[in-house]
Amino acid sequence: MNSCRKKIYFAADAHLGNRYLPDPRAAERKLVRWLDDIGPQARAIYFLGDMFDYWYEYKHVVPKGFVRFLGKLAELSDSGVEVHLFIGNHDIWMFDYFPREIGAVVHQGPETVDLLGRRFFLAHGDEVGRRPPAFRALQALFRNRICQRLYAAIHPRWTFALARWWSYRSRVNGMDAQTPLMQDSETDALVHFAGTYLQQHPDIDCFIFGHRHVMLDMKLGDTSRLLIAGDWMQHFSWIEWDGKQLTLKQMTE
Fold first, then answer.
1. Full-model pTM
2. How far is CA 50 from the centre of its chain?
3. Residues paired with 86 in a beta bridge
């Protein structure tokens, strides 16, 4: 590992390919510019879910688009940067494309990792904490291997159209209501989960989540912290760890 690569980065919720931003391509270019900026200092980059608004990879086919982002990930991986992708509730169907083609590590659920002397609990955020029974049932359905195979048998013309319509309606309804992209109870659930988990695992120094589309940095107990990474749709934000300082930042242009 190059000695100048000393930082760990965390980002989430770019929702690349969405239809509700006025210029989705501009948002992708902005994300790639950020990756260009941090590349020389990055030891590892953790993308904490929903980097794609919809992703379903078939055995020999993946969704079109995202070429700037995918190319940059491959370039970073080839240069020695660890690239980690957590599945989110929008891009849950990641299988072997990213490990094979890019050299990225795909995480199917929460992970506890030691990074530069501290212990981190990392997750997208939709899979932990209190969730309505209907949400948990839908999540179990999406993760079921048999259901995934049946879904893959449907022509992509219909599955992609359905997924994008569903995503678009849920996002627009939230924006029209002039509320955060998810309700405050979602953040409360993550805070409650982290506090309870910390009581059972006091060695966790920091919890980092995506999913909520908000920027949050709060203290847990005497020594731990909880951060939510914002997004790359409205905040253009990330979390940076250099072994001494853990900072929530935004791109300013």
1. 0.87
2. 5
3. 107
Position 44: which residue type? A
CA-to-CA distance for 139 and 157, rounded, in angstroms?
Answer: 23
Three-state secondary structure along the chain?
Answer: CCCCCCEEEEECCCCECCCCCCCHHHHHHHHHHHHHHHHHHEEEEEECCCCECCCECCCCCCCCCCHHHHHHHHHHHHCCCEEEEECCCCCCECCCHHHHHHCCEEECCCEEEEECCEEEEEECCCCCCCCCHHHHHHHHHHHCHHHHHHHHCCCHHHHHHHHHHHHHHHHHHHHHCCCCCCCHHHHHHHHHHHHHHHHHCCCCCEEEECCCCCEEEEEECCCEEEEEECCCCCCCEEEEECCCCEEEEECCC
Burial of 37 (0-12, 13-18, 19+ CB in 10 A): exposed
The model's pLDDT over 111-150, given as tens digits with 9 standing for 90+, comes to: 999 999 999 999 999 888 666 666 566 667 667 777 777 7
The model's pLDDT over 26-52, given as tens digits with 9 standing for 90+, comes to: 999 999 999 999 999 999 999 999 999
Are 222 and 1 within 8 A, CB to CB? no
What percentage of the chain's residues is helix, strand, coil (to nearest 5)? Answer: 35, 25, 40
